[in-house]
Amino acid sequence: MADRSEKPDREALLGELSALSATATSADGAVSLSVNTDGVLTRLRLTDAVSRMSPDEIADAVLRTYVEAQRDSAKRTGQLLAPLGSGGYLMDRLRWREQFEPAPSAPPSPPPPAGDAVLQDRSSDASAAKPPSGPVGDDDWYGKGMRFDKAW
Fold this sequence. Notes:
Layout: H1 10-19, E1 21-25, E2 31-36, E3 41-46, H2 55-81, H3 89-99, H4 138-143
Antiparallel strand pairs: 1-2, 2-3
Helix pairs in contact: 2-3
């Protein structure tokens, strides 16, 4: 589009939006990916560098790189749509995508110490409920309506 002051040609705008692709690469070069104008992942490449990373590090690198590509996609999509106005739900969503920051991943929980038993002996815990004194007849069972006893 040559002149952004005029209202853009609908077909040209749709063509530019369809062709838009934003690519980002992690700082260490281990992850490279692309997203389309909607921020949908369209390509993901991992280098051999990921073999030296833990699963959590790989996940974090993919997520951070994905967010970077989405921000670029949102910014460029917003620039293409700017001649149509800066208000409305779509533009609000694009601004949100540009500012989105993922929650930090939780550190992995440490494994239990080797000497501690994982299973515990619960035989001395509170005694189980006493069973009924005798069999429950059908009349008694159905006469009281639906019950949720542990009899099943």
